């Protein structure tokens, strides 16, 4: 990993720009709520962008066809930053939440046929979050939307990996 001091808001803005056109095509509004107490974090910039891109891509993909809203939120919790991506999409059944971060896992074959994908994005995101010493999870109400949340340390005490 190439850990460096990165400015959080510009990276989130840049990553959001990558999916903005797709979201607009599906009439999905993108909103950002930044915690003003967080200016910088120590993280691998490319890994951070990949985590966020995977979550945003899924939020767009699984949002309802008639549109909706995706909200990206940052919050400071002690020595951690918490980033959440919430959507107003199809939601996930409670019994399926634990399966989400497994490689090649999609909730059911009908979902993968309808929405596409390999089932790797969330598994990769989990691995990258854990490399940073963080954690990732999901909360959802079936039929009402999902929130994917990850926490990372604000500062890295030691370099992990290469």
From TrEMBL:
Q: Where is the Histidine kinase domain?
A: 1-156
- PROSITE patterns, A to Z: HIS_KIN
Report a single Gene Ontology molecular function: ATP binding
One Gene Ontology CC term in the entry: plasma membrane
Reactions it catalyzes: ATP + protein L-histidine = ADP + protein N-phospho-L-histidine
- EC number(s) on record? 2.7.13.3
* A family per Pfam: HATPase_c
Keywords from the UniProt entry: ATP-binding, Cell membrane, Kinase, Membrane, Nucleotide-binding, Phosphoprotein, Transferase, Two-component regulatory system
What compartments host this protein?
A: Cell membrane
- InterPro entries xref list: HATPase_C_sf, HATPase_dom, His_kinase_dom, Sig_transdc_His_kin-like_C
Q: What is this protein called?
A: histidine kinase
Native organism is Candidatus Methanoperedens nitratireducens
């Amino acid at each position: 990993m190439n850990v460096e001091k990165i400015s959080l808001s510009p990276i989130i803005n840049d990553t959001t720009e990558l999916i903005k056109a797709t979201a607009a095509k599906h009439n999905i509004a993108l909103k950002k709520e930044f915690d003003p107490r967080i200016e910088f974090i120590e993280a691998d910039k490319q890994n951070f962008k990949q985590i966020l891109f995977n979550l945003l891509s899924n939020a767009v993909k699984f949002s309802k066809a008639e549109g909706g809203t995706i909200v990206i939120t940052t919050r400071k919790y002690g020595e951690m930053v918490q980033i959440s991506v919430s959507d107003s999409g199809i939601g996930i059944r409670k019994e399926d939440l634990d399966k989400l971060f497994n490689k090649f896992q999609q909730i059911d074959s009908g979902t993968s046929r309808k929405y596409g994908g390999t089932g790797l994005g969330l598994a990769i995101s989990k691995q990258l979050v854990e490399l940073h010493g963080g954690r990732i999870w999901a909360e959802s109400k079936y039929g009402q939307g999902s929130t994917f949340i990850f926490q990372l340390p604000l500062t890295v005490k030691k370099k992990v990996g290469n």
